[in-house]
């Protein structure tokens, strides 16, 4: 089975803890703090590997954990940074947050490498917390926790044109005729179990990539047959060739076939119905000449007023293929040449910081002390020396409910707030 979907758990490394130590040397009776900083935790990075074409590797292993940073040491020794974990995926892989389905990254086009989860920053050693009033700090900052996320990997093939239609209408034969692809061809409804890609080369015209999208049957958008597994591959295509059995060799109406498949496309994604379509009326070599009405003419009368061009073709003999392919090439040339890329909707660094972790607000000698893993995590993310970082810090205090808790505890303007190594005056 073609592996185009996988669910995995990823976790970045925790930052190493800062160290608490003091200089202890001969003739230096009151050595100051010399605890070193912790090392950075490893990132989780996704990279495109042009040699891959499935997500098969992620079907067997489901957890990918980056290493933690090393703890700081004595004499201001910095802990070693952890190595990153790099996950290789085929081009066209879309990474989504599993629960919401929101896009984190689309590994297509120029995006060949993306850090999805950042490793935790190393904690500061106690050397950083010495002040004129606290010369013997016995506190060091813990390393920032890593981030954990369950992600869904979906491979959406990259092709200019998608071949759609019911099984057994001749899509695989068509593809083998017009491209360098060599799909398996047989008279069975589910011969094709994987998207087949091929390149159409045209003389004096621009070629294009075409994909045979398998598994489309009535009810596909609800998961019937294999349709739901493969409909995602149409989402990148800029134009669709709708192949129908114009001869009706299986007793179905070609016109009804078009409407049924288009209904499945619209049910899966409304945007697919906005993509241009052209109808390839296939198997014209099997149409009985003495019939009452020409089925190709019936298709033209039905769909060409809707702006859908109909081309009579025969995949078996090659008749009509040239006209169809040159028309498709011209249409693609007139369309936006930018590939279909899915924009980022989920930002792990911002989303995960508001996880429901506990914190406490207490008053010690007139100072309001806020502690808890939620605070440590936020401080690890935020650069308070920058204006943007401090604004993000203020937003966090408000949205996490910390300002409300401080007010409930009776804080007034000018009172002092302490959060681990950070101390500041409170003003609304």
Explain how this protein is built:
By secondary structure, this protein is an alpha/beta fold. It folds into 3 domains: 1-155, Spo0b-associated Gtp-binding Protein, Chain: A (Distorted Sandwich), CATH 2.70.210.12; 161-334, Rossmann fold (3-Layer(aba) Sandwich); 355-425, GMP Synthetase, Chain A, domain 3 (2-Layer Sandwich). Helix content is 19%, strand content 21%. It is built from 9 helices and 18 strands. A 6-stranded mixed beta sheet has the order 10-11-9-12-13-14, with helices on both faces. Strands 3-1-8-5-6 form a 5-stranded mixed beta sheet, with no helix packed on it. A 4-stranded mixed beta sheet has the order 15-16-17-18. A hairpin with a 7-residue loop joins β10 (196-200) and β11 (208-212). It is elongated and about 110 Å long. The two termini are 60 Å apart. Mean pLDDT is 81; it is low at 185-192. It is an enzyme of class 3 (hydrolase). One of its GO terms (cellular component) is cytoplasm. Belongs to the TRAFAC class OBG-HflX-like GTPase superfamily. OBG GTPase family.
């Amino acid at each position: 089975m073609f592996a185009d979907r996988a669910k995995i758990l990823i976790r970045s490394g925790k930052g190493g803890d800062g160290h608490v130590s003091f200089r202890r040397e001969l003739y230096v009776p009151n050595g100051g703090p010399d605890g070193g900083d912790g090392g950075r935790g490893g990132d989780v990075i996704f990279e495109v590997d042009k040699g891959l074409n499935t997500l098969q590797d992620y079907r067997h292993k489901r957890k990918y954990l980056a290493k933690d940073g090393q703890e700081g040491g004595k004499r201001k020794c910095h802990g070693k940074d952890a190595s990153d974990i790099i996950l290789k995926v085929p081009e066209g892989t879309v990474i989504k947050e599993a629960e919401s389905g929101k896009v984190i990254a689309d590994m297509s086009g120029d995006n060949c490498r993306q850090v999805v989860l950042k490793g935790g920053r190393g904690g500061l050693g106690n050397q950083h917390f010495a002040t004129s009033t606290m010369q013997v700090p016995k506190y060091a900052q813990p390393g920032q926790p890593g981030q954990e996320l369950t992600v869904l990997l979906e491979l959406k093939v990259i092709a200019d044109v998608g071949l759609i239609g019911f099984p057994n209408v001749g899509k695989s034969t068509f593809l083998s005729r017009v491209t360098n692809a060599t799909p398996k061809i047989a008279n069975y409804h589910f011969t094709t179990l994987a998207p087949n890609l091929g390149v159409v080369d045209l003389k004096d015209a621009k070629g294009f990539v075409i994909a045979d999208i398998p598994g489309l049957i009535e009810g596909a958008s609800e998961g019937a047959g294999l349709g739901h597994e493969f409909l995602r591959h149409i989402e990148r295509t800029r134009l669709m060739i709708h192949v129908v059995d114009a001869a009706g060799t299986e007793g179905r109406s070609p016109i009804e076939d078009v409407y049924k498949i288009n209904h499945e496309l619209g049910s899966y994604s409304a945007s697919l119905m906005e993509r241009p379509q052209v109808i390839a009326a296939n198997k014209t070599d099997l149409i009985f000449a003495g019939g009452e009405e020409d089925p190709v003419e019936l298709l033209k009368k039905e769909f060409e007023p809707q702006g859908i061009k109909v081309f009579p073709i025969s995949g078996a003999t090659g008749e009509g293929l040239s006209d169809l392919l040159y028309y498709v090439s011209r249409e693609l040339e007139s369309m936006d040449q930018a590939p279909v890329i899915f924009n980022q909707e989920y930002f792990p660094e911002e989303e995960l910081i508001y996880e429901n972790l506990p914190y406490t607000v207490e008053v010690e000698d007139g100072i309001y002390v806020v502690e808890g893993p939620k605070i440590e995590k936020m401080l690890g993310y935020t650069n308070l020396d920058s204006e943007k970082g401090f604004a993000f810090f203020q937003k966090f205090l408000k949205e996490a409910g910390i300002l409300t808790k401080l007010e409930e505890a009776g804080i007034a303007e000018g009172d002092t707030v302490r959060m681990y190594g950070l101390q500041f005056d409170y003003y609304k």
